[in-house]
Amino acid sequence: MPFRAKNTIRQRENHKPLSSIEPNNPPENIRCWGFMKLGREYLLTTQQLDIFGTAAAYKGPILLLHGDKDNIVPLWCSEKYLETYGERATLHVIPGVNHTITTRRN
Questions:
Q1: DSSP 3-state assignment of 72?
Q2: Model pTM greater than 0.70?
Q3: What is the C-alpha to C-alpha distance for residues 26 and 101, in angstroms, rounded to an integer?
Q4: Each residue of 43-78: pLDDT tens digit?
Q5: How many Cβ atoms sit within 10 Å of the Cβ of residue 105?
Q6: Cα dihedral sign for 70, 75, 79, 85?
Q7: 105: pLDDT confidence band, cut at 50, 70 and 90?
Q8: Helical residues (DSSP H) of 1-106, grouped into ranges
């Protein structure tokens, strides 16, 4: 099953969520986080990647970190990786942090 993140990366020009883009007909490019440009070919290609199948081939130990305020990758993705890796993996959900684990906590 290809990964299709329901996320809130926003296009700079019109502030639409990435999830609102038609998957089979994305624009020529979008800007996300204000500094990165993603092209149409990238958007089309990443939808076809079997990220969980590829990940299953790794046989080492895994530590998964997921911020509970992550609005880019949903928690179910980390839970799916945990299921994929089995006993080799540990998942830590970190309260109060975002996707880049940079939200400061006091």
A1: coil
A2: no
A3: 29
A4: 899 888 999 999 999 999 999 999 999 888 889 999
A5: 7
A6: negative
A7: low
A8: 40-46, 51-56, 75-85
